Amino acid sequence: MKADPAVQRQLLELAKIDAELSRTAHRRRTLPELAEIDAAEKTVRDRKDALVAAQTAGSDLDREVARQEKEIDSVRAREERDRKLLESGTVNAKQMTDVQHELETLQRRQSALEDDLLELMERREALELDAQRTSAEVEKAEQELSEAIVRRDEAFKDFDTTTARRDEDRVKILPRFPADLIARYERVREHKGIGAALLRARRCGACQLELDRSTIAEIKAAPEDEVVSCENCGAILVRTLESGL
After folding, report:
1. Spatial distance between the Cα atoms of 127 and 93, rounded to a whole number of angstroms
2. Which of 18, 151, 200, 210 is 20 to 30 A from 36 in CA distance terms?
C-alpha cells in the first residue's frame, strides 16, 4: 500500500486523538468512585437490613412486654379480689387459709412476672439504642453514597466533554486519509489498540520494541510513500527525521 508521506505523518495526529479517547474510556471504566459506589450501596443495604432486624426484634419485644403487663394486671386483680374477700369477714377459717395461700402464690407469681418484665424492658431499651445507632449508620452510608455519586457524575461530565471534543476532531481529520489507508489503520487499532506510531530512533512508538537491523534496512530501502508496519505489533510506522534511518 502506498500513501503520500505527508498524509502518513498526519496519522500521528489521528493516533493521538484515538489515544486520548482510549485513555478517557479507560478512566471512565476504572473510576475509583465506581468501586466506592458499589461498596457504599452494599453498606447501605446491610445497614438497612440490620435496622429492619432491630426494629422487628423491638416490635416482638413490645408484644411480649404487653402480654407480660397484661398478665401482671391479671395477677394484681386477683390479688386485690382476694384481699377484699379477706377484709369482708365473710369467709370461714378454711376458706381464709385457702385465700391466704393463694395470695402468697400470687405475690410470688407477681414478683417473678415483674422480674421478667424488667428484663424485657432492659432488652427493649438495648434494642432501641441499637436501632438508633444503626439508623445513624444508614444515614452516614447514604450520605457517603450520595457524595460518591456526585463525584462520579462530575467526572463523567468531564469524560463526556473530552470524548465529544475528540470525536469532533476525529470527524474533521478523517477525510484527509484515503479509504484503504484508514481501513488498514482501523483494523490494526481494533486488534492492537494503536493503529499508527512514530518510528523514533529505530524503535516502534506503539510497542516500544527496537527493530532489528534487517528490518530497519528494509524500511530504509522502502519508497517514502510505501506504508510500512511494525512486524511485532502491526502498527503503521510513520517515518520522519527522528526515525534514525
Report:
1. 51
2. 18
At 53, which amino acid appears? A
Model confidence pLDDT, tens digit, residues 71-117: 999 999 999 888 888 778 777 777 878 878 888 899 999 999 999 99
Q: What are phi and psi of 89, to 5 degrees?
A: 70, 20
**Are the CB atoms for 235 and 194 separated by under 8 Å?**
yes
Query: Judging by DSSP bridges, how do beta strands 203-204 and 196-200 pair with one another?
Result: antiparallel
What is the maximum span of the chain, computed from C-alpha positions, in angstroms?
134
Q: Coil, helix or strand for 2?
A: strand
**Cell numbers found for residue 10:** 498526519
pLDDT in tens, 128-142: 999 999 999 999 999
Q: State the Cα–Cα distance between residues 226 and 178, nearest whole angstrom.
A: 14
In degrees and rounded to multiples of 5, residue 81 shows phi and psi of -65, -45
Beta-strand relationship, 196-200 and 236-239:
parallel
The dihedral formed by the CA atoms of 134, 135, 137 and 138, expressed in degrees to the nearest 10: 120
Q: Look at the chain and count its residues.
A: 245
Report the predicted TM-score, pTM, of the whole model to 2 decimal places: 0.72
- How far is 37 from 240, CA to CA, in rounded Å? 47
Whole-angstrom distance, CA of residue 181 vs CA of residue 173: 13
Cell numbers for 93, please give them. 377459717
Number of alpha carbons in the 13 Å side-chain half-sphere of residue 171 = 6
C-alpha cell at 78: 386477683
